[in-house]
């Protein structure tokens, strides 16, 4: 993979995601990786009826057009698409990760329902826009939008398949063109699964070219070069490799930066790296403290948590919270207060909350559900600040086992662990465990404060202002790294 393309991608695209300025275009390669046929394979039988081998023709849309003319209608082609694309294949990890990323605009020329199923699997709402009339439908609050610009397998009577469909696209689906061009002009778009042999791509690239401006946002195309195993002969492989090399260079004409991979199997790892970089811009404040414990330092802990929340907001990071007793609400109060100067208009994007359902009197908490929520919070967060972490056990205050579970999950997710040991409870236990540990504490790979910082954060004589100053310095250090 070219270093320049990868470096720019891993710097620019996560930042666009964090700022709410990113979109994705899902190409045929993603569907093929899930087991769906390529266009050439899909139309093999159609070609045989006409005495044509799909491997001998580049313009597969023309092949569909010829079959429609010869048969007197599009029923045959549509039936093939319904039969082959209507099957439920296993959702690939690539789409599972894309469904988790904080973007609201997704585009595809694929007919299948893989993306919709990936969103449904995590309970995330998505509005599907498969026809021009769908564009006017009222959006579901909080939902992402999937623009299936060439239609969907569940509406095969309204899909783009032939030369006629492409040539008359503007008159039949012109609203898609206008909206795609608007997104290309204002958002950073990631193209995944682009293929030189996909007839849809020429159409999409022509639309990009029309919307190209002097200073477009950064767009990225994850592309896979041809492999020798893809072809029957060395000559065919060499010819296709040469075409791919020239095509990849030509993508720059459309404002696309090529990010090459050796195989589609590498895409999930690349996207997981993007996911962690987005998470690094989010801070989870974990902790708790009994509210009915006068004289136990709960008021001091509240003020400290409030200050940490304010620091996070002022640093331009997002706040993640599980609404733990005392700590979570305090951190949220400080965070929201820090956004007041700007009107707080982006709080819906920057505040991520997962409330833990509490058991009613006489009932018991759903610990499995709680673990699932904690796992999600750990995945969403690149930094976790631990404050307190205690609960009442009869007349005693003991360390909260749930907060320690959050520590274990955050560590497993690769988050930076920042315990303020001076606040006691589980935070002190975590601090003691990290002190002198083999976890890296400096550089870009740091996962914990240095021993010197841990000791300072655990100093019982430190004031709230001193602890806040230490936390602020550590957050700055991580940002620079």
From TrEMBL:
Q: Which Pfam families match?
A: SIR2_2, STALD
Q: InterPro entries given for it?
A: DHS-like_NAD/FAD-binding_dom, ThsA_STALD
Q: Which residues form the NAD(+) hydrolase ThsA Sir2/TIR-associating SLOG domain?
A: 266-477
Q: Identify this protein by name.
A: SIR2 family protein
**The species this protein was found in:** Mesorhizobium hawassense
